[in-house]
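2024-03-11 09:14:02 INFO worker-7 job=invfold-0412 stage=load source=structure_tokens
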């Protein structure tokens, strides 16, 4: 394919603030430079991009991830990898509730997950997450994506002024899906980042705190920070800022962890759900 002449890529927005479906590309084949540039632009414009009906090997999944930046290393220490990870190439994670000998083969196995940014609990969080669905339940298990740009742009000016320039503390036990649920492993990580994050590529600001992992505001007591954080969580999760993804087998999604949070709906425990996940590595967040 001519690099000056991209494929007939169709970009269809999926909600007012976040999400677009990209049609016209078969990701099992290497993409031209022009197509790589076009999907990167769509990602920056729409925060979450959705490709349907893809048939990808693990090698394909890693290749497609690398179109967006360097592949991220798994945050969780190998000692805490679930058993299914043995079948994965380096850089790939398995998200699944399927059980063998009573033990889930993948990470984040069951049910509802609170809104969160992947890897915010690390000093250098990953810019993006790419999730590919192989098996899905007959109902439930939707993934919800909230635009941090829309939340920032519409935030109450008094609250914005109070928090501008401040930093929040984040803490996460790997595997936890609800704050303080005790379901995670004993492995954890913690970090401090600006409450409003400026995107290195778009220059736009997003709210950068989440209900699952954000535990406090630097320089404030818990009594002072708790109601402020609660107000931020409630605002950021407003339905008008959200795109809800209903999965089909063969969906490949890429979301931007700099400018969005995501959550998962509950789903039947006795139905199989299997997804493979990679991340796009990030860089240091300026203070
Ligand atoms: C994740 C995640 C949501 C889902 O993999 O980081 O949040 O729908 N997954 O499984
Ligand atoms: Mn996640």
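2024-03-11 09:14:09 INFO worker-7 stage=emit residues=287
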């Amino acid at each position: 394919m001519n690099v000056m002449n991209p494929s007939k890529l169709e970009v269809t927005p999926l909600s007012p603030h976040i999400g677009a479906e990209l049609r016209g590309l078969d990701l099992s084949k290497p993409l031209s430079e022009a197509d790589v540039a076009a999907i990167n632009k769509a990602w920056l414009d729409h925060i979450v991009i959705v490709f349907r009906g893809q048939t990808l090997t693990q090698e394909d999944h890693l290749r497609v991830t690398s179109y967006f930046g360097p592949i991220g290393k798994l945050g969780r220490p190998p000692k805490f990898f679930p058993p299914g990870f043995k079948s994965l190439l380096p850089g790939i994670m398995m998200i699944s509730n399927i059980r063998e000998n009573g033990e889930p083969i993948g990470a984040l196995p069951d049910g509802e997950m609170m809104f969160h940014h992947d890897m915010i609990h690390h000093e250098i969080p990953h810019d993006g997450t790419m999730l590919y669905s192989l098996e899905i339940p007959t109902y439930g298990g939707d993934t919800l994506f909230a635009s941090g740009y829309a939340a920032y742009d519409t935030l109450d000016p008094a609250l914005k002024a109070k928090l501008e320039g401040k930093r929040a503390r984040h803490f996460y036990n790997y595997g936890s899906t609800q704050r303080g649920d005790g379901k995670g492993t004993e492995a954890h990580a913690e970090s401090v980042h600006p409450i409003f994050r400026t995107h290195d590529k778009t220059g736009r600001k997003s709210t950068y705190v989440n209900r699952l992992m954000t535990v406090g505001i630097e320089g404030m007591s818990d009594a002072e920070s708790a109601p402020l954080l609660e107000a931020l969580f409630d605002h950021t999760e407003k339905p008008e800022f959200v795109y809800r993804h209903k999965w089909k087998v063969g969906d490949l999604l890429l979301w931007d962890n700099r400018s969005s949070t995501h959550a998962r709906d509950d789903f039947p425990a006795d139905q199989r759900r299997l997804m493979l996940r990679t991340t796009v590595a990030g860089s240091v967040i300026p203070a």
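2024-03-11 09:14:09 INFO worker-7 stage=report msg="The two ends are 42 Å apart (CA to CA)."
2024-03-11 09:14:10 INFO worker-7 job finished
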